[in-house]
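A quick aside before the break. I want you to see a complete sequence-to-structure record at least once, exactly as it would be stored in a machine-readable document. Don't worry about memorizing anything.
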Amino acid sequence: QVQLVESGGGLVQAGGSLRLSCAASERTTTMGWFRQAPGKEREFVGSINQRGDMIAYGDPVKERFTISRDNGKNTVYLQMNSLKPEDTAVYYCTTATGSTWDVWGQGTQVTVAS
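That is the input. The structure line, written in tokens, reads:
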């Protein structure tokens, strides 16, 4: 089964930027990013298809976050700009081996200080 490892999280000031990476152990199809803040449900951040020409974003991050991928490196990226304190969460990458998001990484913490 494919394994996913996120990296790039950390502490940043409001208005700053971070880039998360998700490295897969093998080739993947559609990839997604979700996040979960304390006491809240997991929230869709965005997704990208295998060719990288179909990308979707959740409303809270539109115009600020950008998803991209490098299939040669089996890696997906999440560029986060204009970060807000409400973006603080654990960020997870995921892929769908079937019809649902069924493989998840361990998550990486993003903390945005006001």
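Two observations worth writing down. The mean pLDDT is 96. The longest strand covers residues 18-24. We'll return to this after the break.
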